[in-house]
Design goal:
The protein has 556 residues and is an alpha+beta fold. The protein contains twelve helices and twelve strands. Among the domains are: 92 residues, Helix Hairpins (Orthogonal Bundle); 181 residues, 2-Layer Sandwich (Heat Shock Protein 90). The protein starts with 13 loop residues before the first helix and ends with a helix.
């Protein structure tokens, strides 16, 4: 037997969703304005604090005025009630009624007293009257209970009657709520006192006063205070905004000018007006900008001269180097006919000429990078194929030093838009460094890719580097150990050029190294030209790296 099918929940209201979205957008804009605008924060804080202060002061004034109004009306009510009680008592006391007086005379006195009491009260909200016989009377003659047509019987509570009956000669007051014909209620005061009627015994006089006039006065005062508080807060907000604009505007202009200067617009300056502290700040800033522009111009000119010098020298050295190369090749080819000393000299000459050519090529490449005259020749390339070619090229050299090169190609088989010549040069530099500093231990080349990027990591297990050396490893002509014997005749510019090649592709070249554990270089390039890479398919720190004792100490 199957149970009832549960009713699916109703879909969310489109209006509610739109309201939540609008509220979220408004909150986001307010938060952004709070973070970005000093003017907004200052005005908002001033308005909030002024609003809190105005609310506290307005509430205090309202409570104080309300209490004063109530006290004033209570004193007025007590005075009128006492006067009405004395007037009614005098009417009954001055009567000629005796024990033989008839009921008609007593009724006439009662009506006279009621009219006199109503005529003696002057409450703006109106007064209701009732004359009631005190329970427990045993007199032979009685007066009937009378009350005004609009007398609220609910205002005379049992507690009020007990208070009146137990304290003869004193007024009893009680705050009451008077219902209205159209609904709702207004505040009021019920006052009770006793009357001694000859031959009829004790009666109770109740007067109910409508205090709606005092309530209206208090409401008007509260509305006036509220409007005044809102107007005051708005005025404070306007004044604060004007003052903040006067103070913050020069700071904003200074911030915008500094941003433009940082972006390369070195001719931007702050307007200088007046002689106050803001004008002094502007003059100081402009003086600093003038001096900085002069220094930057000098450095830029020096850099241009240096670049041109390197380029010109490299080009000028090409001609004599070509002549020396031709002569050296002739001598190198005929070294078998020379003596041992001359043959060795010829071999050294040939080697150094090769190294000199590499140095000139690297200097020309660096000068092109500095001049911004380098362009990529992009092709759709399988990175694994480039890695295989470079590893095959360096395997004999690795075998000479006792190292083995292993390729772990988990990815990279898909094509990527790269400059094959430049990527090949990067791989040659990284693998050559690994063989040079690998101490004859195994070398691992990893290739991996994802949807965004392709990465190649070269890991050696050699001597490694200190943290200070890692920070300078991409500097030009820098070597961690200049006295170390070099297997490959490098120029000291290989890693610097490799970094420039990676950045030119929109990628990056990173290094991890630790003394005694070797080094790991990771080059990450976007698979699509011009795309950004948020992460690398390969981690920088190798999986077989030992825990860093410094990091463990910090975590502890």
């Amino acid at each position: 037997m199957t149970g009832p099918v549960p009713t699916p929940p109703p879909p969310p209201s489109r209006l509610g969703w739109a309201t939540r979205r609008a509220w979220g957008d408004l909150t986001a804009r307010v938060v952004d304005s709070w973070r970005a605008s000093l003017e907004f924060r200052t005005v908002a804080l001033t308005v909030v604090l002024a609003g809190v202060g105005a609310s506290i002061i307005g509430t205090s004034i309202s409570v104080s005025i309300g209490a004063n109004l109530y006290d004033q009306r209570r004193d007025q009510v007590q005075s009128e009630s006492l006067r009405a009680t004395l007037l009614a008592q005098n009417i009954f006391d001055s009567a000629t009624a005796t024990e033989d007086a008839d009921q008609v005379e007593l009724d006439s006195l009662q009506n006279e007293a009621q009219s006199a009491i109503l005529g003696s009260t002057s409450s703006p909200g109106g007064t209701s009257i009732a004359i009631l016989r005190t329970p427990g009377q045993t007199t032979a003659q009685t007066l009937q209970n009378i009350a005004s047509p609009d007398f609220p019987s609910s205002a005379v509570t049992a507690a009020l009657r007990d208070s009146v009956a137990s304290d003869t000669g004193a007024l009893a007051l009680q705050a009451v709520s008077l219902p209205q014909a159209g609904g709702g209620s207004v505040p009021g005061l019920a006052v009770g006192s006793t009357l001694q009627v000859p031959t009829a015994g004790q009666y109770e006089l109740y007067l109910v006063y409508d205090l709606s006039d005092a309530q209206e006065t208090l409401a008007l005062m509260q509305r006036t205070l509220a409007l005044g508080s809102v107007a005051l807060v708005a005025l404070i907000a306007v004044i604060t905004y004007v003052v903040v604009r006067l103070v913050v505007e020069p700071v904003r202009v200074a911030a915008e000018t500094s941003q433009k200067i940082a972006a390369g617009q070195l001719d931007q300056r702050i307007p200088e007006k007046g002689s106050d502290v803001v004008a002094t700040l502007g003059r100081s800033f402009n003086g600093m900008a003038d001096e900085m522009q002069k220094q930057i111009s000098q450095l830029a000119e020096l850099s241009r001269v240096q670049q041109r010098f390197v380029s010109d020298v490299s080009h000028e050295l090409r001609t004599p180097l070509t002549t020396i190369r031709l002569a050296g090749d002739v001598l190198f080819d005929q070294r078998g006919s020379f003596g041992p000393s001359a043959a060795r000299t010829t071999e050294l000459l040939h080697t150094q000429v090769d190294r000199f050519e590499l140095l000139l090529a690297d200097l020309l490449e660096i000068s092109r990078f500095d001049a911004g005259a380098v362009e990529l020749d992009l092709e759709s390339t399988r990175v694994v194929g480039l890695v295989d070619d470079v590893v095959a090229e360096f395997e004999p050299l690795a075998a000479d030093v006792g190292s083995t090169v292993t390729i772990e190609a988990r990815g990279g088989y898909l094509e990527a838009e790269v400059d094959p010549r430049r990527l090949r040069r990067v791989l040659r530099n990284l693998l050559g460094n690994a063989i040079e500093h690998g101490e004859g231990r195994p070398i691992v080349v990893e290739v991996d890719s994802d949807e965004e990027a392709v990465a190649v990591a070269v890991r050696d297990h050699g001597i490694g580097m200190r943290p200070a050396d890692v920070e300078r490893v991409f500097d030009r002509f820098w070597r961690a150990d200049p006295s170390r014997r070099r297997t490959i005749g490098g120029t000291g510019l290989g890693l610097a050029i490799s970094l420039e090649d990676a950045v030119l592709h929109g990628g990056r070249l990173e290094v991890w190294s630790r003394l005694g554990e070797g080094s790991r270089f990771v080059v990450t390039l976007p698979r699509t030209a011009g795309a950004a890479t948020s992460s690398s398919p390969l981690p920088l720190e190798p999986r077989d790296a030992a825990p860093d004792p410094l990091e463990e100490a910090r975590d502890a």
